[in-house]
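To fix ideas, we reproduce below a protein record of this kind.
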Amino acid sequence: MAKSQWSFRSATGLSAALAAKQVSAVELAQDAIGRIERHDGKINAVCVRDFARGLEAARAADAARARGETGALLGIPMTVKESYNVAGLPTTWGFSQHKDFVPGEDALSISRVKQAGGVILGKTNVPVALADWQSYNDIYGTTNNPFDLGRTPGGSSGGSSAALAAGYGPLSMGSDIGGSLRVPAFHCGVYAHKPTYNLVPPRGHTPPPFPAIPLERDLSVIGPMARSAADLTLLLDVIAGPDPMDNGVGYKLALPPPRHAALKDFRVLVIDGDPVMPTDKDVRSAIETLAGKLGKAGVSIARHSPLLPDFADSSRLYMRMLMGFLSASFLPETIEGTRVEVAKLAADDRSLLAERMRGMTQSHRDWVLDDGARARLRAQWRELFRTFDAVICPIMPTPAYPHDHAPLQETRRIGIDGKDYVYPDQLAWPGIATLPGLPATAIPLGLTARGLPVGVQILGPWLEDRTPLKLAELIEREFGGFVPPPTFDD
C-alpha cells in the first residue's frame, strides 16, 4: 500500500487540512488505523485498540465541523499511554494482577482531550509500574523501536514514542518522573515536553486499582508527545490548568510568553556531558553540531558557567528523593533487605547506587532536609536563568540500546565508548530537570551513522514552558526535525 500523504503530517497541518476540507476526520482515523494494522505486529506499540469508538469520535468531529464548530484537536487522531484512565479500557500499568481493571471514567487530561475534539484510537505499551526505559510486560509483551526492532523504544512512554515514529497519529501523551517522556522521544526521534511540575493535573493517571482523586505525586508529571515542536504546545494548552476537583489549586495564570521570538536573541548554555554520567561520541557529536549551527544563526552560546548547579551533588540528591518517593510502594521485605545493605555502606560512598539505597530507607526527617536542599537548588536555577534563557544538555548517554530484560536493573550495564556503566545511573540526565521541577523539551537532532535517533533536551525556567518550546520550534524550522524510520516509511 502506498504511503498516505497524511501519515506523517503534524497535528497543526492536519487541522488546517480539515478546516480546508481537504480531508475528513474519518479518513485520518482510517489512515492511522490502517498503519497500526499494517505495522504494529512488528512494533507492538498500541497494546489496547479502541478503533470503533475512535471512528465514532471521528464521525462526530466531521459533523461538528459541518456545523461550523471548532476545537483545538477536532478530528485529530492520537494515542495515549496505557497508564491514563480511559473509561471502558483497561488500565494495568503492566501489572498482571490488574489486567482486568477497567476504570469507569476518564482521567481529567483525557476528558480535556475529548472535549477539544481529539480522536483517541488506543493506548500504548509501558513497562511494569512505569519503571524502566524499556517497554515490556507480561500482559502485552515487548515494544520495539521502529528504527531497529532489536532495540528499546525507550520507556516508560515507549509505546507512545514508537507509535508516533511509526505514523500512528501525530500526537500522544505520556508521563515523566525519570525521563519517561524525554527518553523515549530521544530513542525514537520524536518530540516531548516535560511540563513545569504540577502544571498539568494528574488526576486519573493513577496506578490500579487506586481511585482517581486529586493527588500530588512528588517529581512526577504528565505531558504531550508529538512529531513536531509546535504540536507540543497545541496539546499542552489543552491539558494544562488547575483541577476543578482540587478547589482550583494550581497555576491559574496564563503561562508567560516565550522570552524571544527569534533564534538570534536566545542566550543558551550548552552542556555535552559530565564525568558523573558521560555521553558517547554520537551524543557529543550531535550536541557539538547543534551548538555550531546555533552559533552561526546568531544564538549567544556558552559552554561553561559557574552558575550551573553542581551536577554530581544534584544527581545524588535526585537519586535519594526519587527512591524515597518510589519505595513507598515497595514490599516491606524489600525495604528491610535494603536497610541491611545500607548499614554496610561506607560513610564516604557517594556512588549513585549508594544514594538510591539511602533514599529507599531514609527517615522523614532526612527527606525534609533533602527537600530543603532542593529548595536551594531551585534558587540556583532561578539565578542561572537571569543570565541564560535555556540550557541544552543530554537526555541519555547513548542512542537506543538492545533489549535487556534482566530482572534486576542494578545488574544491567550500559556501554559508553567501550566502558560499562550501571544502568540506573542514567537517571542523572533526566534528573537534571526533574528534581527542580523545571520544564524540559526533548527534540530530535537526526540519525547516527547506524541509523539511530539522537537528540537533546532544552531546559527552561520555572513556569516558562513556552520558552524551551519556542526554541524547539525555531530549531526545527531552521535545521529540521523528525525523520521517519525507513522500514516503516510507507
In short: DSSP finds 14 helices and 15 strands in the chain.
